[in-house]
Amino acid sequence: MRRLSSTVVLWAVVIAALFAPHRVVADVCFIGLIVLLGGAGLVEFYGLIEKRGLVCFKRWGIAGGGLLLGGTFACLSGWWGPQNALGQANDFETGFLVLFVLGLCARQLVSKSNPSGLTAISTTLFGLMYVAWLLNFVQKIHFYPEANGRLFLIYFVLVTKCSDTGAYVVGSLIGRHKMIPRISPGKTWEGFGGAILASTVASVAFVMLAQGRLIGMNSGHAVILGVLLGVSAVVGDLIESLLKREAGVKDSGRLFPGIGGILDLLDSILFNAPLMYLYLRHVLGI
C-alpha cells in the first residue's frame, strides 16, 4: 500500500505538470520536475559512489546535470531558438558533453589532494550520462515535433510502470525461480514474465483507447513496444540493483515510502526513454 500510494501521488503530479492549462505554467512545472528528479538522482548516484569508497567530483556532476537538462529544455521548448529543434538539442548535448569532459580534466589538473583522477573523472562522467543524459530523452519524447509528444510520454510512462508493477505483483505471489540472486535476490523469472505481460497488455489497451491519436501506432507496434519496454525496464532495474549491491545498500534513498529513492523510481524510465525515442524516429518514422 505504501508503494502504491507513493506511485499514485507522484505520477498525479507528473500528469498535472504535463496538462496545466497555461503553456508557460506547464513548461515551468515540467522543467522544474525534470531538474528536481535529475538533481536528486545525481545526489543519490554520487552518494552510492562515495559509499563504495570511490572518489568523484560530486558538485561538478550535479551542476553539470542541471545545466544539461536545462539547456536541452531551452532548445526543445522554444525558449532558445525554434520550438521542437531536436537537431539543435542533440548538437547542444554533444558540445556540452565535450566541454564537461574537458572541464573535469581541468578540475583534476588543479587538484592538489586527489591522486585518483582517472576514477574521479570516470565516475563523475558516468553519473552525468546515466542520470541526466538518459533523462533528457524524456524531454525529447515530450516535445517530439511530429507527434502528440505528451500523449506518447504518458503512454511510455504507463507501459514502463505497468512492467514494474507486473514484475512486483507476480514475483511476490508466485515467484520461485531466481534470475540473478547475486545482484537482486528478489527478482524471479516469474516476475520477469509478469513484467512483459503487464507492459504488453497496458500498451495494447492504451493504443486502442487512444483511437488513432498516437500517430503511426497500431496493434502490432503496441505489442512490439510492450515487450521491448517490458524487457528493458527489468534490465534497467537490474542495473540499478547492481549499483546498489556494489555500494552495499538496499535502496538508493528513502524519499518515497515503499519505493525508496529517486533512482529506485527512475531505474526503468532511464533505459526505456531512449528506446521509446528511437522507436518514434526510426521505426514509426514520425
Strand content: under 5%
Bin the helical content. over 70%
Low-confidence segments, given as residue ranges, are: none
How far is the N terminus from the C terminus? 40 Å
Shape: globular
Q: What's the alpha carbon Rg, rounded to whole Å? A: 19 Å
SSE order, as H and E? Answer: HHHHHHHHH
Tally of contiguous helical segments: 9
Counting helices, strands and paired strands, the structural category is mainly alpha
The average pLDDT value, as a whole number, equals: 87
Q: Largest sheet at a glance?
A: none
Count of distinct strands: 0
Overall number of structural domains? 1
Secondary-structure map with pairings?
Blueprint: H1 2-18, H2 23-51, H3 58-77, H4 86-109, H5 117-142, H6 149-174, H7 189-210, H8 219-247, H9 262-282
Describe this structure in words.
This protein has one domain (2-282). 75% of the residues lie in helices and 0% in strands. The protein has nine helices and no strands. α2 packs antiparallel against α5 (117-142). The radius of gyration is 19 Å and the shape is globular. The N and C termini lie far apart (40 Å). 42% of the residues are buried.
